[in-house]
Write a structure and sequence with these properties.
mainly alpha; Rna Polymerase Sigma Factor, Chain: A; Arc Repressor Mutant, subunit A; 69% helix
Length: 197
């Protein structure tokens, strides 16, 4: 059953089907909310805000207009607005990524050296993403990790599609710039070791 069919059924009175909505989106939504709360030190309220998001969605389901946005986009927008509201209440606006949410794929060779390099690289990438301005960081998370389409990201962030593309371009360039010195230093060290220097 597609999201659209599911929502239609729920609106028509099969409210027990909302449990399926929660099953489909709970993990992704919780990770998204957790990421936005992390640097504010408020990750302890992530589950509460996730539940609040589902509650708000359930109560407003009759207002959802399928032609305007996908259900996922609508749900992420509610979650983001809940987080913003919570951050304002606590007088902080700093948001960042969850350290545990984004892992790079492990290299095929699991030697201790490769493990150390991988951990350092993951940490550097995380730091680079965390250093991005809020909108760039949010756009990058939604596109690269949550695999949302440009128009969905635009709706969630309250931007135009061209603005989202621009945010993503600047975000990727920002991460690349921050990573260049680490990568060139790492590989030049490898080159020197290979040549006995």
């Amino acid at each position: 059953m597609t999201d659209s069919q599911l929502i239609r059924e729920i609106v028509e009175g099969n409210v027990e089907l909302f449990e399926e909505v929660i099953k489909r989106y709970e993990r992704k939504l919780l990770a998204f909310v957790f990421q936005l709360l992390k640097s504010a030190g408020m990750e302890s309220v992530a589950e509460d805000l996730c539940q609040e998001t589902f509650y708000k969605a359930f109560r407003s389901l009759h207002l959802f207009r399928e032609g305007e946005a996908s259900f996922a986009t609508w749900l992420y927008t509610i979650a983001r607005n809940s987080v913003i509201s919570e951050l304002r209440k606590n007088r902080t606006s700093s948001v960042t990524l969850d350290d545990a949410a984004y892992q790079l794929a492990a290299p095929a060779d699991h030697t201790p050296e490769n493990k150390t390099i991988r951990q350092e690289t993951v940490s550097r990438v995380r730091d680079a993403i965390n250093n991005l301005p809020d909108k760039q960081r949010s756009a990058l998370i939604l596109r690269e990790y949550d695999q949302l389409e440009y128009h969905e990201i635009a709706t969630i962030l309250g931007q135009t599609v061209s603005s989202v593309k621009s945010l993503l371009f600047r975000a990727r360039a920002g991460v690349k710039t921050q990573m260049e010195s680490y990568i060139s230093g790492h590989y030049s060290g490898d080159y020197e070791r290979m040549n006995g220097q």
